[in-house]
Specification:
Heat Shock Protein 90; single chain; 3-stranded antiparallel β-sheet; Beta-Lactamase; binds adenosine-5'-diphosphate; 11 helices; 365 residues; alpha+beta
């Protein structure tokens, strides 16, 4: 056997079989209390049932043994005698001789409170990211609504035309059908725009997946292009074909939109022939994908550069100073990093790197 995880994948019963060779020989008072047992005897009589085989936890021990590790740990959820679920972190030190394997000590830490705090923090973070999307959207809404009015007037023109064809003395059915088809296509465009906007504003759980980076770029451009057009800013893209990223697609879109909107603000007072935004996506080795958003705006001096990612840092009269803070928290939560370079009076470039592939999973319940 050279790859223990593959072995467990190919032998799904192995963990359960190995577990049958184990016995629980002792438990301290804290373990008895953790399981809400009446007494130590009560707990010991049922210990095997209370700690059923668990692929993640058990294989973490075998994996550590296999690699001759000195310790292993993981997370799992226990169910007490009264049926309460208790999230725990467990740890086990591994001996360095065979004799030591006659008896292993497992330590369990009840992390209910930490988990509740973590869940609360998680919910708060998601809500903060969403409100920042709503405020970004507020900024873009007028130009996007203008965009929707186009397909809607297309629907109207085409259906009026269809009516006229049908109301003739000799109705022109073929022409009417063509006009109705046009109306239907316009209506589909309008629906699609609404769907994308709802996606950006909705409450959606974070769901990292591997996807084509070009999708994130396209969906961000969808939101900012109307505003960039209306402000006479040209947008260039340069995305390495087929390049992938492993992240939550909506959140990558949010980071890009944030950087692009900041770029549009920075270009505000730049003359017409130099109003340019560009987005590029390139690989950095096999495991990282780097997004770059560059603008030909006012630039950032070196002092400001230090404070960009601080909460509430803003140089705008109506700014909140949370956009870059949230962008950084999103990128870092995905295991990436974000940074900026600038040539004051010339341009600014924000880059962020994200994993290209799914990280190797940690053992957890
Ligand atoms: P806000 O846009 O509400 O100010 P952000 O966190 O998005 O909040 O940005 C913080 C500050 O960083 C901005 O007020 C601005 O001074 C600076 N900044 C961000 N992006 C750029 C850019 N592309 N060019 C120049 N300055 C920028």
């Amino acid at each position: 056997m050279t790859d223990i995880d593959r072995y467990f994948d190919e032998h799904p019963d192995a963990v359960g079989e190995l577990r049958k060779l184990h016995r629980f020989v002792d438990a301290n008072d804290a373990a008895v209390r953790l399981f809400e047992a009446d007494s130590k005897e009560h707990f010991m009589a049922k210990a095997s049932d209370m700690l059923p085989a668990n692929r993640n936890s058990n294989s973490a021990v075998y994996r550590a043994m296999f690699k001759r590790g000195t310790a292993c740990q993981g997370e799992r959820t226990l169910v007490t005698f009264s049926g309460r679920k208790v999230p725990i972190v467990w740890r086990c030190s591994l001996p360095n001789d065979l004799e030591g394997y006659r008896r292993l000590f497992f330590y369990a830490f009840d992390v209910t409170e930490q988990k509740e705090n973590r869940d609360r923090l998680e919910a708060l973070r998601a809500e903060m990211a969403r409100s920042s999307r709503v405020s970004l959207f507020g900024e873009l809404a007028a130009s996007i609504l203008h965009e929707i009015s186009q397909p809607l007037s297309g629907v109207r023109t085409s259906s009026d035309a269809a009516l006229r064809w049908l109301e003739r003395d000799t109705p022109e059915i073929a022409e009417a059908v063509r006009a109705i088809r046009d109306a239907s296509r316009w209506a589909k465009d309008a629906t699609e725009i609404c769907r994308k906007m709802r996606g950006f504003l909705g409450k959606v759980p974070e769901r990292p997946v591997q996807f084509d980076a070009v999708e994130a770029v396209d969906s961000a451009l969808f939101l900012i292009s109307p505003k960039a057009n209306s402000e006479g800013i040209s947008v260039e893209t340069n995305v390495t074909p087929g390049i992938k990223v492993f992240a939550d697609p909506l959140q990558v879109q949010q980071v890009l939109v944030n950087l692009l909107v900041n770029g549009i603000h920075a270009i505000d007072s730049v003359p017409a022939d130099r109003r340019k935004l560009s987005i590029s996506v390139q690989a950095d080795g096999a495991d990282a994908t780097v997004f770059a958003v560059q603008d030909s705006g006012c630039g950032i001096n070196s002092e400001t550069l230090q404070s960009l990612f601080q909460p509430f840092f803003t140089t705008k009269a109506d700014g909140m100073g949370m956009g870059l803070t949230i962008a950084r928290s999103i990128v870092e939560r995905h295991g990436g990093r974000i940074w900026a370079e600038s040539q004051p009076g010339q341009h600014t470039c924000f880059r962020f790197a994200l994993p290209a592939n799914q990280p190797v999973a940690l053992p957890s319940d």
